[in-house]
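Sequence, please.
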C-alpha cells in the first residue's frame, strides 16, 4: 500500500510522522511523508526549536509529488495534528486530488484536539474546523473519547455513561461522513477502574477491546494507533481484526517504554510486535 502521510515531524522522539512512518514501513507499506513542522522534539517538553512550515510550503511538496505523476498510486492519505486551518485546507485539497485519480483511495484523519483532564490544547477555531470541515471528508477517523464527545456534541466521557451512549455518539459522527471510527481511551460504566476500552465501529458492526490501564501516557501513541489501524483495516478489511492487532501492538510498545524507563515510546525496541503482533487481545462484538 502507498500512503501519503501529512503530519508533524520531530528529530528526537516519536510523534506525528516520526511515530507513523517507521511502523507503517515495518508492516510493509510504502510511506510518502510530508511534514508540516520540523521540530527538534515534541512540544510536550515545553521548549523546542525548528520551523513550522507554511501551508504554501506543504502544498508545494505535495504538488511536487504530483509533478512526478504518481499521486494516483496513493491508496490512503493519513493526517494527524492540524495546527492551522490553512494546512488543513491543503490536506483536503490533496485528498480530493488523490481520490480524483484513484477513487478507491481512503482518507484517515486523527482529529487531534484535546483530551480528558486537559481540555482543548489546539488554537481557537481548530476544533470547529475539524468537526465541520475535515471529519466529514474522512473515511476513517480515530478520535479519543474526549474528541468523540466534541465531534458528536455529547457528554459520554464521564466514566459512568453506558456503552450504548458511546456507540450513539459514534453513530452521530458516522452520520456526518466517515464510515469507520476508532475511539481510543474509552471509559464507560462497564469498564473496570483499572482498564479502558478501544472501540471500532463500521457498517459491519461494533467491537471493543479492553486493555489494562498502564501507568504511562506518552506522546505519540495516538499517532501510532491511527497509522496501525489504517494499515490493518486496509489490508484485512476487518475492523475486528484491525482493532485486535492495533491494540496488541500499541500495548507492547507501552510495555517496552515502561521497561526502558523513557519518556519517548520505544518503537524500535518493540518493532517485532509492530510487524507481527502477538494476539494479546480479542475483540468482542458490541452489536
Amino acid at each position: 500500500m502507498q500512503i501519503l502521510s501529512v503530519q508533524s515531524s520531530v528529530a528526537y522522539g516519536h510523534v506525528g510522522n516520526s511515530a507513523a512512518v517507521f511502523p507503517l514501513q515495518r508492516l510493509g507499506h510504502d510511506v510518502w511523508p510530508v511534514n508540516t513542522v520540523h521540530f527538534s522534539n515534541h512540544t510536550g517538553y515545553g521548549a523546542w526549536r525548528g520551523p513550522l512550515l507554511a501551508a504554501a510550503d506543504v502544498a508545494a511538496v505535495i504538488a511536487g509529488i504530483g509533478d512526478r505523476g504518481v499521486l494516483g498510486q496513493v491508496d490512503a492519505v493519513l493526517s494527524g495534528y492540524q495546527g492551522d486551518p490553512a494546512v488543513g485546507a491543503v490536506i483536503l485539497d490533496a485528498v480530493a486530488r488523490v481520490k480524483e485519480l484513484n477513487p478507491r483511495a481512503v482518507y484517515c484523519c486523527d482529529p487531534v484536539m484535546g483530551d480528558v483532564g486537559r481540555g482543548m490544547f489546539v488554537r481557537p477555531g481548530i476544533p470547529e474546523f475539524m468537526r465541520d470541515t475535515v471529519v466529514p471528508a474522512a473515511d476513517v477517523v480515530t478520535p479519543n473519547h474526549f474528541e468523540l464527545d466534541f465531534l458528536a456534541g455529547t457528554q459520554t466521557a464521564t466514566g459512568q455513561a453506558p456503552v450504548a451512549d458511546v456507540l450513539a455518539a459514534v453513530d452521530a459522527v458516522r452520520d456526518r461522513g466517515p464510515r469507520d471510527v476508532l475511539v481510543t481511551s474509552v471509559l464507560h460504566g462497564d469498564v473496570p477502574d483499572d482498564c479502558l476500552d478501544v472501540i471500532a465501529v463500521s457498517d459491519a458492526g461494533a467491537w471493543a477491546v479492553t486493555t489494562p490501564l498502564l501507568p504511562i501516557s506518552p506522546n505519540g501513541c495516538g499517532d501510532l494507533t491511527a497509522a496501525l489501524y489504517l494499515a490493518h483495516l486496509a489490508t484485512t478489511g476487518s475492523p475486528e481484526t484491525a482493532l485486535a492487532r492495533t491494540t496488541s501492538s500499541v500495548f507492547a510498545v507501552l510495555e517496552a517504554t515502561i521497561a526502558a524507563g523513557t519518556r519517548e515510546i520505544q518503537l524500535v525496541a518493540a518493532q517485532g510486535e509492530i510487524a507481527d503482533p502477538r494476539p494479546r487481545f480479542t475483540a468482542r462484538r458490541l452489536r
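The longest strand covers residues 30-39.
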